[in-house]
Amino acid sequence: MNPSGSALSGAWVATGLGALLISSAALTATTPGTDHATIVVVSGTYGSNCGAPRGNVTRDLAQHCDGLQTCRYPLSIVAARSGVCRNDYLAEWRCGSREFHSAALAAGAGAGDRLVLSCVPSRGPGH
Predict the structure, then answer these.
(1) Is the Cα dihedral 102, 43, 118, 26 positive or negative?
(2) Measured between alpha carbons, how far is residue 70 from residues 20, 58, 66, 81, 105 in Å?
(3) Which of 11, 85, 112, 127 has the smallest number of CB atoms closer than 10 Å to its CB?
(4) Model-wide pTM > 0.90
């Protein structure tokens, strides 16, 4: 992806029990012929609070979300692999070359919860 222009953007969302938003966005580069950058997953970690290594579900998260503008990732995919510990979930992704996002679901996140990653600019509350 070769950046050709810039647009101010800020979009990050987490849904489910105990959703916690961690960081926001800055300046993003857009690709020619598109209005918005797309998701590039940096890291996905499920259960870091229970000793799981950072990035343990990065490949799965990337397979579902890379290249999309918005991705609703169902935690049921990884929840089946969890043990007795109440796991948290942390996703980190980029939109373009300068914009970084992270979002988390608190401990207890599991089947039925979804983490929403997005590179679509926020237009305010409810949009």
Answers:
(1) positive
(2) 18, 17, 9, 25, 17
(3) 127
(4) no
Residue-wise pLDDT for 17-55, tens only, equals: 444 333 333 333 444 555 679 999 999 998 888 888 999
Residue 27's CB is within 10 A of a number of other CB atoms, namely 13
* Beta carbons of 111 and 31 less than 8 angstroms apart: no
- Name the 3-class secondary structure at 28: strand
Q: Please, what sign has the CA dihedral across residues 72, 76, 78, 79? A: positive
| Amino acid in position 115 | L
Tokens representing 12 are 């990050």
Contacts of residue 66, defined as CB under 8 A and 6 or more positions apart, other chains included, come to: 38, 39, 40, 41
Q: Are 104 and 112 in contact (CB under 8 A)?
A: no
